[in-house]
């Protein structure tokens, strides 16, 4: 991140420090997972929240914008979950549904009919049995929000798509934040798609009216010859803060199309780092900030062409009403 450590912490950083110390022993996982959490928290604490002197965060000074950080969310009130779920923008679409509530996988609310070929695991269980699987894709990343997610992660879901699987209907991963009081959520999604598989994924984020905060990280691997469409719809509550990260590794002859729509949250950032490791791979990234009032939406993308004969196409738009602030920044690296 190329910034100097600081001695002074903001109020939000003090609250993060207090919450981690209070919760570190009770968060899910083995003793190995706790050691990994401690290492991740130390990496975050060395630099603190991202700010404008961090090049990748130049236009979204999170340290200045984030005045407070509430405690991690507990169990969600069932009635509130149902009320938020009624705002389903995909109602009527035939799809399998994987449900995450307050950062935790809810098998009881999920519906995998038509997607029985998928293997779906609870990240909390992986933290207990094999924590080295968590964060494998970004062991060398130095982003503070990735590190903070690794320290505080409450759970999430791991989805494995076997090779040559072809699903007729899309699969939705829906994240619901439901809390009567301000709360924070740290969740992890791990998706591994086998060679020559074909899949349409939809990821949605919904929440209530409280001033909650979400730090969501997705790790994605796509095997050789697979074709994947991934739509990400951010429709958080109007008082929410949403920081999402996608770290992806794509194999040879992959087709990958990714649509991102920011249409909620007072403050949102979606950052993607995509590495193309095999020749013949094609990706398309399409995004839109749809902002109103004083909303701030940041779409940031890094594409690394690490193999010859790979192509990428990027199209991003801002639609802003009022005093909203839309950001797009992109970087393409050819190795």
Commentary on this structure:
The chain is α/β, with parallel strands linked by helices. It has one domain. The protein is built from 6 helices and 16 strands. Strands 2-1-5-7-9-11-13-15 form an 8-stranded mixed β-sheet, with helices on one face. Strands 3-4-6-8-10-12-14-16 form an 8-stranded mixed β-sheet. Helix 2 packs antiparallel against helix 6. The protein is globular and about 50 Å long.
Compose a concise summary of this entry:
This protein has 335 residues and is α/β, with parallel strands linked by helices. Helices cover 17% and strands 40% of the residues.
Overview features:
335 residues, alpha/beta, 8-stranded mixed β-sheet, 16 strands, 17% helix
């Amino acid at each position: 991140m190329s910034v100097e450590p600081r001695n002074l912490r903001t109020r939000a950083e003090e609250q993060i420090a207090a919450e981690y110390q209070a919760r570190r022993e009770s968060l899910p996982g083995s003793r190995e997972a706790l050691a990994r959490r401690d290492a991740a928290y130390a990496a975050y604490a060395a630099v603190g929240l991202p700010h404008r002197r961090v090049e990748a965060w130049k236009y979204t000074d999170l340290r200045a914008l984030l005045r407070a950080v509430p405690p991690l969310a507990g169990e969600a009130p069932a009635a509130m979950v149902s009320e938020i779920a009624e705002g389903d923008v995909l109602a009527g679409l035939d799809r399998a549904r994987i449900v995450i509530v307050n950062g935790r996988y809810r098998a009881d609310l999920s519906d995998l009919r038509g997607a029985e070929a998928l293997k779906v695991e609870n990240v909390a269980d992986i933290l207990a049995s094999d924590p080295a699987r968590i964060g494998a894709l970004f062991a060398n990343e130095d982003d503070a929000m990735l590190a903070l997610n690794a320290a505080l992660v409450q759970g999430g879901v791991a989805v494995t798509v076997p090779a040559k699987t072809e699903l007729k209907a899309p699969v939705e991963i829906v994240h619901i934040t439901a809390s009567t009081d301000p709360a924070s959520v740290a969740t992890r999604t791990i998706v591994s798609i086998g060679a020559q598989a074909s899949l349409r994924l939809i990821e949605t984020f919904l929440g209530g009216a409280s001033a909650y905060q979400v730090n969501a990280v997705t790790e994605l691997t796509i095997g050789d010859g697979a074709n994947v469409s991934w739509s990400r719809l951010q429709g958080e509550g109007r008082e929410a803060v949403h920081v999402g990260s996608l770290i992806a590794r794509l194999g040879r002859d992959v087709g990958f199309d990714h649509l991102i729509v920011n249409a909620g949250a007072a403050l949102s950032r979606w950052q993607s780092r995509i590495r193309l490791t095999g020749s013949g791979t094609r990706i398309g990234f399409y995004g839109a900030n749809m902002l109103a009032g004083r909303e701030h939406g940041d779409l940031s993308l890094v594409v690394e062409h690490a193999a010859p004969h790979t192509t990428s196409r990027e199209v991003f738009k801002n639609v802003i009403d009022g005093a909203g602030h839309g950001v797009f920044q992109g970087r393409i690296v050819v190795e």
